[in-house]
Amino acid sequence: MSSFPLYLLRHGEPEGAGRLIGRTDARPTATGIGACVDQARDLAAEVLIASDLSRARLAGEAIALATGVPLAIDARWRELDFGAWDGMSPGEVEGAALARFWDDPDGQAPPSGERWSALVDRVSAAIDDLAARPTLIVTHAGTMRAALAVLCGFDMRQTWAVDLPYNCLLTLRVWPGVTPSAQIAGLYP
Fold first, then answer.
1. What is the domain range of residue 59?
2. How many domains does the chain have?
3. pLDDT by residue (tens digit) across 83-137?
4. What CA–CA distance (Å, rounded) separates 170 from 21?
5. I want to staple 84 with a disulfide (CB 3.0 to 4.6 A). Which of 7, 12, 111, 182 is the partner?
6. What pLDDT shows up at residue 1?
7. EC number(s) in its UniProt entry (predicted)?
8. DSSP strand pairing (135-139 vs 47-50)
């Protein structure tokens, strides 16, 4: 089976950067949107998808306008839901609880928040629905890490070894199938 390029673009800097903004619908800055458009301009993607959260969706809309590729919205590409901590700065969360979460985000999810395995499951389902065409997805750091877990077999700790700053572009070469796999082809901060 032939492979296809999958471009995962983290949204640009949002208002309230530095907070745990999973499901919080923080708006992107104009600079953040512009940086995403610059990253996407020469990719030759045939499919464009964005998370439904404003920080990704608005960047996706700007990319669609700049490239002429129609935008599809898919909520499965949302960030991890930080539950009761969503919208808080790390300093506002009890330190030991936050440390337990970073150490084991599946077993120590935030109160009323999403487990790591749930994020991986929904990203896996979204990947399964992709057509084997050059695809750009404007998304979030957590979902990019979940895609690395699904496609490259990274365990949770390995996914955190990859620095994914705002508006970075992670390029994967994907081989679809019953168990899709991928190779990292580039990371452009």
1. 4-188
2. 1
3. 999 999 999 999 999 999 999 999 999 999 999 999 999 999 999 999 999 999 9
4. 21
5. 111
6. 64
7. 3.1.3.73
8. parallel
Q: Report the CATH number at residue 40.
A: 3.40.50.1240
CA distance 35 to 31: 6
Q: How far apart are CA 154 and CA 11, in angstroms?
A: 22
State how far the alpha carbon of 189 is from the alpha carbons of 1, 2, 35, 172, in Å: 30, 28, 10, 15
Model pTM score: 0.96
Question: pLDDT band at 168, cuts 50/70/90?
Answer: very high
Sheet holding 47-50, edge to edge: 71-73, 47-50, 135-139, 4-10, 169-175, 181-188
